[in-house]
Amino acid sequence: MTSLTQRSSGLVQRRTEASRTAAADRERSSAEEEQEPRRGETPEDEDGGDSKETRLTLMEEVLLLGLKDREVICKSDAPTGDVLLDEALKHIKETQPPETVQSWIELLSGETWNPLKLHYQLRNVRERLAKNLVEKGVLTTEKQNFLLFDMTTHPLTNNNIKQRLIKKVQEAVLEKWVNDPHRMDKRLLALIFLAHSSDVLENAFAPLLDDQYDLAMKRVRQLLDLEPEGESMKANTNELLWAVVAAFTK
Q1: 24-77 per-position pLDDT tens digit
Q2: Which domain holds residue 84?
Q3: The CATH number of the domain where 188 resides is what?
Q4: CB 3.0-4.6 Å disulfide test: which of 140, 154, 173, 174 passes with 130?
């Protein structure tokens, strides 16, 4: 009886989200019609039109949705431009003998029990990611007073970027589903796995109608049920991606 009540509550929530999304789509359609480009002008592509300031890293996308063994050898220590990634690559490059993927996930996240390796932990990851999104105009910074202290928060200020991200995730398992992980965009595939491990993937599916929601979750389950070891041995695969998947889904 309790599970039935919870399920019913979930259905009502998704229907409410779906209604809000439909209303928002109608408003956007009206606005787009009023602002139709003049003859000779070419509208920017929805994904390719973003400026460099609004292109998000994979970790930033996982954070935005939440608003959750092989040895790793650093083949290139060239800076990536992402502070967190460069910090992780520096640790990997300087560590001998090499650690496994599972070990690096534990070390960088601070989940190791070895006190001699605590210096590997990436500090204040969520706050640093949030500040990156503030700089890119996706979030803003506010101070909220909680009786005895002030807390810094980062509310969403550019909902269009989040909605495009949600749409991209939804389409990957619905309209653009290819039923083969090796034919999927590798970055999008990684996003789905990481978002699921971070418990934020379902946020992208909340606005869906019941049938769409069930289908999306069914296909996500297909991906989660894959055997990473076997997938990593297939032709033209990304071995590191599947090693990380194995570490998160074991």
Answers
A1: 555 554 444 444 444 344 444 444 444 454 788 888 787 777 763 556 666 777
A2: 54-249
A3: 1.10.3630.10
A4: 154
> Is 76 part of any domain?
yes
Q: Is 38 among the domain residues?
A: no
Please check whether residue 174 lies inside any domain of the structure. Answer: yes
227: left (phi over 0), alpha (psi -120 to 50) or beta: beta
| Residue 16 placed within a domain | no
